[in-house]
Amino acid sequence: MKAKVNGVELYYERTGSGRPLVLLHGNGEDHKIFDSFLPLVKDEFTVYALDSRAHGDSSKAALGYRAMAEDIASFIETSGIAEPIVAGFSDGGIIALLLAASHRVKFKGIVAMGANSAPCGIKRFWRILFRTGYLFTRSEYLKLMIYEPDITVDELGSIDVPALLTVGERDMIFPEHVKAIAERIEGAELKVVAGANHVSYVTDGEKLYSVIGDFILSRR
Fold first, then answer.
1. What's the pLDDT tens digit per position in 117-146?
2. Which of 147, 167, 171, 209 is the least crowded, having the fewest Cβ atoms under 10 Å away?
3. SS3 call for 98
């Protein structure tokens, strides 16, 4: 299905029944990253798995985390989704933080997996790799990670919904950076996933459920 918001068409798949759960993928991916996770939650939640603008089957548009967050806020509003839980990975986690900081939509909770609040949250090796790649490809996806996000301390401090932040022990995001984000959000939970890299626990549905299942189920 597709929904038109902010001049772009967002592709999404709706499955299951119960309290709404919105899933947001990472940079250069699409909703299919959650394929092995969906069967584990569809009996408890109505799941909306989206493709962000310029990703998957959604329409092409200029990239920017704040614009992407506006897309999701508008999608939630126009779709009549009441107080969803939003769970996002990487870019999707950044969007989840921006959504909660905007106070535009009411949420039961947010999950931000492998999210950074500024480019300096990415380890130096990866920043160099992204910059080198951008030099040769001029990829807008790489450019996004080089120059954004820019979530302020005040914005993080304004988040007043239950929040779970996760990061892999061997993530490309500094675990200390994610810890600092969690400390800025009152009552936020932090989970460092032992042995995991940036994406390994997200593509493994059973592992992802073991990491975030208790949090989302307690907020149905």
1. 999 999 999 999 999 999 999 999 999 999
2. 147
3. helix
